[in-house]
Amino acid sequence: MHNKQFVVIGLGIFGSSMARTLQALGNDVLAIDKKESLVQEIADEVTQAVVLDATDENALRSIGIDNFDVAIITIGEDIQSSIMVTILVKELGVKYIIAKAKNDLHGKVLRKIGVDRVVLPEKEMAIRVAHNLVSSNILDYIEFSSDYTIMEIEVPNKWIGKLIKDLRIRTKYGINVIAIKRNEKVIISPLGEEVLLKNDIIIAIIQSEDLDKIEKLISK
């Protein structure tokens, strides 16, 4: 799989956090904001950072916006700009658009104009969304409260052939295994004696504060 090319438009807390995480995961990231100070702040941490007004269609054309796989529009406060930029980016041919919404109504409007994924974020959420976009090992996650997440994880290579109890998954990573999907079979509440096999999928409950440990484990 080629490294994905992401363009992040709007470098507030969410946008800059998103851009840094995507870059750290080995992708090409172009970060854009019309505020020079925000662009300078992130310049060393992403592939390219540009001072640009994204509501200007010609400016967007000039950076070859249509070459990007994913556009992440994180202009949350100024709803009008957010909508305008979204329409332009869509018209200029970016295939997948994620946009940050200020509230549910803003989110509804964004969906109507063709945003693929609307996020009502916090900083942690930005980091998680970035990992979710990039890591093919995390197959799915459901945040069912602010403290807990249910996640499906492909068994990391270094766990294959090992007993669950020997891996000390819960103590090391905070992963509580609730089931293992193995081909067509689902093993509910697997015992510590269960050996993990290639292509197993672990279904686990994870405390949100342990997510970073899991990202590190999976991106290795």
Helix proportion of residues, in percent?
25-40%
Percentage of β-strand residues: 25-35%
Number of domains: 2
The major beta sheet can be summarized as: 6 strands, parallel
Cα shape: elongated
The strand line-up of the biggest sheet is 3-2-1-4-5-6
- Give average pLDDT, whole number: 84
Query: What is the count of DSSP helices, taking H or I runs of 4+ residues?
Result: 9
Unreliable residue stretches? none
CATH architecture of the largest domain: 3-Layer(aba) Sandwich
Distinctive features:
220 residues; alpha/beta; Rossmann fold; Alpha-Beta Plaits; 2 domains; six-stranded parallel β-sheet; 9 helices; 11 strands; 35% helix
What does this structure look like?
This protein is an alpha/beta fold and about 220 residues long. It has two domains: about 5-130, Rossmann fold, CATH 3.40.50; about 135-220, Regulator of K+ conductance, C-terminal domain (Alpha-Beta Plaits). The two termini are about 15 Å apart. Helix content is about 35%, strand content about 25%. About 35% of the residues are buried. Strand 5 (about 95-100), helix 5 and strand 6 form a beta-alpha-beta unit. The mean pLDDT is about 85. The strands form two sheets. Strands 3-2-1-4-5-6 form a six-stranded parallel sheet, sandwiched between helices. It has a five-stranded antiparallel sheet with strand order 7-8-11-9-10.
